[in-house]
Write a structure and sequence with these properties.
The structure holds two protein chains of two kinds. Chain A is mainly α. Helix content of chain A is 34%, strand content 8%. In chain A, strands 1-2-3 form a three-stranded parallel sheet. In chain A, helix 1 packs antiparallel against helix 5 and helix 2 crosses helix 5. The longest helix of chain A has 16 residues. By secondary structure, chain B is of the alpha/beta class. A five-stranded mixed sheet of chain B has the order 1-2-5-4-3. The longest helix of chain B has 12 residues. The chains are: A mainly alpha, B alpha/beta. At the A-B interface, helix 3 of A face strand 9 of B. The complex binds iron/sulfur cluster (SF4). Iron/sulfur cluster (SF4) binds next to helix 4 of chain A.
């Protein structure tokens, strides 16, 4: 530590690049604004003042180019699936996906008879966190954000995404 | 005008066009021939005493032994209603389009075509409206069997017999 000793004044923090980057990433998760079914109503409730996802740094963005998180909030129909894939591809790396609700996770209520519903959005985009429920309460979605943050905290610049 | 009177007017004006009349049921209806559909509809719309200017709903039904199209008409002028039915064979069902009479029939007819495969002759733009353009089959037909895959994605993960 001899090089930096006495070189910096007070209020200077020394940390590793990994920790610093992870801290920056997990404190500003910006989800792309789109909802595809009833789960989106709970997602909006999570964003509104009562639950206030902004206190976790989660702030909806209007464009995929500015987003690093995709919350798949709703029923993924086959017609929608290719659009979701297109949106995901437009987001810059590093990017994360939360599958919100049992529709996005597994097909949900359409598991048996939905001829038009994709049985899990993980068939088109890689999912980081699954949030169960039909729909999940805002607390569950907040828990999903926290789980994702825990995951990002374990990342390293040597590997692109945490296992 | 009472619905019975509407039926009487229809019967006296189109003795060959009206197949049968059901006045008893929950929703009294007149079953008419597909060949005189356009004539009857333009009469219902333009007659001074009827003025059925609004097509409230156009639906398709699959009865396994036949197909049926149901028209619910409403007169905003007289506030009276009438229900028309057209029976069609299950093989290659086709009937004239009523878009030339009620422009609102456009999307209704496309939806029935999309889900039942019923052809509306003379429709300006008869193509799929809800399902993707490259979808195969008509899912609301009773004999419809889901394909295994759509664009490589599994449609149904549940096998027969699963409860
Ligand atoms: S999981 Fe339930 S609430 Fe969510 S989109 Fe599906 S049906 Fe709607």
């Amino acid at each position: 530590m001899s090089i930096i000793e006495n070189k910096f004044r007070d209020n200077v923090i020394i940390t590793s690049a990994d920790k610093f980057m992870n801290w920056a990433r997990l404190s500003s998760l910006w989800p792309i604004t789109f909802g595809i079914a009833c789960c989106a109503i709970e997602m909006m409730a999570t964003a509104a003042s009562r639950y206030d996802q902004d206190r976790l740094g989660v702030l909806p963005r209007p464009s995929p180019r500015q987003s690093d998180l995709m919350i798949v909030a709703g029923t993924v129909t086959f017609k929608m699936a290719s659009r979701i894939k297109r949106l995901y591809e437009q987001m810059p790396d590093p990017k994360y996906v939360i599958a919100m609700g049992c529709c996005a996770t597994s097909g949900g209520p359409y598991w048996k008879h939905g001829y038009h519903v994709m049985k899990g959005v993980d068939q088109v985009v890689p999912v980081d966190v699954y949030v169960p429920g039909c729909p999940p309460r805002p607390e569950s979605l907040l828990e999903g954000f926290i789980k994702l943050q825990e995951k990002i905290r374990r990342e390293s610049i040597a590997t692109t995404q945490a296992a | 005008m009472e619905v019975g009177e509407v039926f009487k007017t229809l019967e006296s004006n189109f003795p060959d066009g009206v197949k049968s009349i059901d006045i008893e049921g929950f929703d009294p209806s007149a079953t008419i021939e597909a060949s005189s559909l356009l004539e009857i509809c333009s009469f219902l719309k333009s007659d001074k005493k009827l003025k059925f200017t609004s097509l409230m709903c156009l639906s398709g039904v699959d009865f396994e032994e036949k197909m049926e199209i149901v028209y619910h008409l409403h007169s905003l002028h007289y506030n009276h209603k009438v229900t028309l039915k057209v029976e069609l064979p299950r093989e290659k069902p086709a009937l004239p389009s009523v878009v030339s009479i009620w422009i609102g029939a456009d999307w209704h007819e496309r939806e029935v075509f999309d889900l039942y495969g019923i052809h509306f002759e003379g429709h300006p733009n008869l193509k799929r409206i809800l399902l993707p353009d490259d979808w195969e089959g008509f899912p609301l037909r009773k004999d419809h069997v889901d394909a295994e895959k759509y664009r490589g994605w599994t449609i149904r993960k549940v096998k027969e017999g699963y409860e």
